[in-house]
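Sample pair:
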Amino acid sequence: MIKEHLPQQEKSDFRHSLLRYVQSRWEVLFFLTVYILLTLQVLFFYSDMQSISSLHGAIAAFAAFESYIVDRLSYVTTPAILLPLLCLLVLKGKPKWTRRYCDILGVYVVVRMVIQFVGLNILVFDAVTERFLLITQLLFFLPYSLLVWGWIYWRFDSIAISRNRPLFRLDCEHNPPRPLDYFVASFSSVLSATINAIKGNSARARILILGHGFLIYDVMGLTLSRAVALVQSR
């Protein structure tokens, strides 16, 4: 009986250790995930652009920016992003620079989200690009943007809660909400006609939710329009 009990106890201890590890490093895992999604989106776009000879106007400017990211900037951003994140994964404690680094990285992924969003809207009006290019871009951008919006909600609200002035009200059981609750609220916007899982307590919070809703509905509209175009072309 004792021998049978030991493996079960070891499994239970391992699960608890793994859970504590994820809870303490969830933000690092978040940034690794969104960076992988962003990199895949850019690489797929870059590879498709190589097969198109004639680019013009806004799409040419966006293609030039993506080419610059792959050919030049990635040699700086990749080690600058991945090396500190990997260090944070293996270190037992949190260095003093962790919070500031994560905030800087958060600003970076938000700016890239805006740029990619503008690029997607350019692609839908361009007749030169391949029909499936926009679909593949949307498949990477949608989870990327939903994850980023979950982080935006959490970061703004965590600062406000520390000042005893929470920005958002979430439809969840925990008070204050867990980081996971903000991501659930963000992803639930895809499944609902309105963003009901999170509500703003101030004008600034409601503006953030409005911006989130605009981006998601625009992306869903782009997906639907390109899907209809693909069906009609057959």
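The first helix runs from residue 2 to 24.
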